[in-house]
Amino acid sequence: MSIGQSLLFMIVSLAASLAGGLCGVGGGVVIKPALDAFGWASVSTIGFLSTCTVLAMTVYSVGKSLTAGDSVIDLRIGTPLALGSAIGGVAGKAAYSAIAGLFANPNRIGSIQAVVLGILTVGCLIYTVKKDGIRTHHFRGTLLCFFLGLVLGFFSSFLGIGGGPFNLVVLYYFFSMDTKTAVANSIYMILFCQGANLLTTVAGGIPAFSWSTLLLMMLGGVLGGVFGRKINKRIDNPTVEKLFLAMMVLIILICVYNAWQYSA
């Protein structure tokens, strides 16, 4: 991969991590489909690069919030969600490998990922638009939290995105969290899911990649976390929700393109 392509990957990672950190979707939900659309690397390589980038961003964001003492993570809810997400992430990675092995061209799974992500994102978009009229709940059961984390981790890892709009929808609906609290807890979940995803990838064999591209993307992810944290303190919940809606529309459009590209 040329230096120009690597720099472009870094810019995408920076922008996606900034927006993803603000909206609580981790950035991978944009990085993965956006880089797939370029077609400069295999689906598995982009998934690995995205995983490392999002992990770098979430390690910074969660670590900085906890050490600064301004974290709004609800550990009673967030920890079983995160642990479930980690185990679900391992299962999702295994499902990805199994399905990818069914195709002569392993990149064909990119079409399946795009369709599934697009459908889930459309559902999340509809819920977010209608959510003011939807009754939410205040569940606190550890087993329910773990199960929900398991499901979210499975889809996040299978799709190679780390997290997604569905994290926030679940946190809104089942736990009645406000937007900023949901964002913080979503990033906490993504940290565990991506950590488990990376360990599984390393154990199963790392795809071919460029070290310069990986390091630049991880730098972009951390810078996105730095700027996202600063901006998050200066904007209110309605602004975050508008950014979230705009991001979902962008994701849907990219997914439509990728579904066509990888099915051709």
TrEMBL record:
Residues annotated as transmembrane: 7-31, 37-60, 81-103, 109-129, 141-174, 208-228, 240-260
Keyword annotations from UniProtKB, A to Z: Cell membrane, Membrane, Transmembrane, Transmembrane helix
Domain of life: Bacteria
Membrane topology listed for this record: Multi-pass membrane protein
GO CC annotation terms, alphabetical: plasma membrane
Major site of localization recorded for this protein: membrane
Pfam family, one: TauE
Record-linked InterPro entries: TM_pro_TauE-like (IPR002781), TSUP/Inactive_protease-like (IPR051598)
Location(s) in or outside the cell: Cell membrane; Membrane
Family: Belongs to the 4-toluene sulfonate uptake permease (TSUP) (TC 2.A.102) family.
Protein name, per record: Probable membrane transporter protein
Organism of provenance: Candidatus Avoscillospira avistercoris
